[in-house]
Design goal:
Distance between the termini: 27 Å
Number of helices: 4
Radius of gyration: 13 Å
Order of helices and strands: HHHH
Largest sheet: none
């Protein structure tokens, strides 16, 4: 539902960046829990997604970088 909302508002890059930002958090949750714990992976993904969103918002407010460029930089960093 969030992806559809972002597509309708023409913010698909932000939706893609957020989906890829959640993936490392889910992987870290899996490594910490040691098994397929949906709670640990969900919590890790939530923390990673919120941190990327907050850091990107801080970069947007403190620099002259625009929203899409900021999200794209965190998108590439989360994939790395």
């Amino acid at each position: 539902p969030i992806g559809v909302f972002l597509m309708l508002r023409r913010m698909s890059l932000m939706g893609d960046a957020m989906s890829h930002a959640v993936l490392p958090g889910a992987a870290i949750g899996y490594l910490v829990a040691g098994s397929l714990s949906l709670t640990a992976m969900g919590l890790g993904g939530l923390i990673a997604g919120l941190s990327v969103a907050l850091l990107s918002g801080a970069v947007i407010r403190m620099t002259v970088l625009q929203e899409d460029a900021s999200f794209a930089s965190f998108y590439l960093a989360s994939l790395a």
